[in-house]
Amino acid sequence: MDLQNTAAIVTGGASGLGAATAQALAGQGAAVFAFDLQPSMEKARAVDGVTYVAVDVTDVEGVRLAVATAVAAGRPLRTVVNCAGIGTAGRVLNKDGSATDPALFARTVSINLVGSYNVLALAAEQIAKTGPLGDGARGIVINTASVAAFEGQIGQEAYAASKGGIVGLNLPAARDLAQYGIRVNTIAPGIVETPMLAGVTEEFQKTLAAGVPFPRRLARPEEYARLAVFLIEHDYINGEVIRMDGALRMAPR
Questions:
Q1: How far is CA 73 from the centre of its chain?
Q2: 30 and 7 in contact (C-beta within 8 Å)?
Q3: Which of the chain's termini has less CB crowding within 10 Å, N or C?
Q4: Is 236 considered catalytic here?
């Protein structure tokens, strides 16, 4: 699918994976609508072809209005890339034997999984109304999982469960939306240089990179963006979860 003269939505589009993807899609000729929280918007670097829309992906009505903003701009909405998410850590039981607040688990799943579904569903509703392209194609949704969906580490119960849900959502959503010509794929990154690592020391980042078989470094947001563009352009890849991890397999801790 050609991105030229189409509209695209990128959630989490003000930083990290989302910002790199928004820039890449705009570079391919799409009018990009970057959804993110207001505080993130205030720090975002302006990019030509990218319109920043303040929205909380867990707010269904807010998402509906934000999608309507993208549609009202006039270009057919063809692409959604869900990058919005949070990384959380908390063992089931703390060292003192007390349970970690279940609200942490609920919040993580709400943002990472339910938020992605909200955007997928409400954007697909609008993509389905566009005119068909070759083979009846209308558009694509790309969700973001993580290698934690497969090898969640100790203390990653909430995060791994939320990303495992994204993986579980992928194939049935692709099958469900096939009748409308909408493909669904998922990228599962390994350890990427994003703001989620902002609080991690450089020394520890080198330790993380040393665990990657090859290339022995952390992934870059731009590499995620390139993979997203490839999936958009390759019309026969559908229902797939693609790991982008340098052959990394996470240890228990």
A1: 23
A2: yes
A3: C
A4: no
Q: Which pLDDT does position 199 carry in this prediction?
A: 65
Class (C level, CATH) for 7-244: alpha beta
pLDDT in tens, 33-89: 999 999 998 888 899 999 999 999 999 999 999 999 999 999 999 999 999 999 999
Is residue 84 within a helix (H) or strand (E), and if so which, with residue range? none
Q: Please report the pLDDT score of residue 41 as a whole number.
A: 86
159, 180, 224, 236: which one is catalytic?
Answer: 159
**Spans of the chain below 70 pLDDT:** 198-200
Structural domain boundaries of the chain?
A: 7-244
Q: H or E stretch including 35?
A: strand 31-36
Is 52 within 8 Å of 13 (Cβ atoms)?
Answer: yes
From residue 66, alpha-carbon distances to 27, 36, 56, 117 in Å are: 22, 10, 10, 15
HSE toward the beta carbon, residue 184, CA cutoff 13 A:
27
